[in-house]
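#lab-general

N.A. 3:47 PM
ok so I finally got the sequence cleaned up, no stray characters, all 239 residues accounted for. can someone with queue access submit it? mine expired

B.Y. 3:52 PM
send it over

N.A. 3:53 PM
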Amino acid sequence: MLCFSRSAIVAVLLLPVAALPAQTAPAAGPKPAPRKTLSTPLPSAAASAPKTAAPQSFPQLKPYESCSFPDGLQITNIVPMPDDVKQRPVQSHGKAGTVPLLAGRRVDFAYPGSDPYASAKIELLPEANFIANRKALFDDFDDIIASDKNVSRNTTRKSPFNAFSIAGLDRNAVDGKTLGIYLLIDDRTHVVTTVYLLNPAKTPIKTAADYARMRDTFLFNYTKCIRNNQSGVLFGNSK
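B.Y. 4:20 PM
back already:
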């Protein structure tokens, strides 16, 4: 299903993006994989699967798959991660590595009559070595920001955010098809969510203030919905 990536954040699953020039490793060491610039998260072949195809059930992922939004935003597509995807690449200071994955989804969001506004790559990490893998993901996100002069870290969005650890970056101008990427980690369930905030053709996003308002609304509503769904699961009320 799924899909910023060589970058750990976008690449390995279903959202590959355009590349930056490769970083240069020390002469004696291995050459690291090239970084990717902020771009449109494109679906892989897995995205062509019928929307009605039922993905394998993972209870930790269910709260992310069913939400309604007060501003009319809707979940429009859910694509399971291909069975042969077992890891996601990460990179820090020129050193490449991987983070293991158990399962994943790509969840798309759109306003009625519009192209997707957001796409979320949702991945379940194993409990073993979670702390080290969590650090690798945040280090990779830092590396993405350092690799692209056209983006900036969101320093106003502090952790925890609705009990998620969060890191975010935004494009410096309202330009292009991907305007921001946000990494959300649930330390309790070991689920990592990478949110790509898009710039669809039919959109009210005209200024940086428009983008920031819609971004903050989406992040709050989606994370709040996830927490509400998790409460339903905990109390046996969720289907």
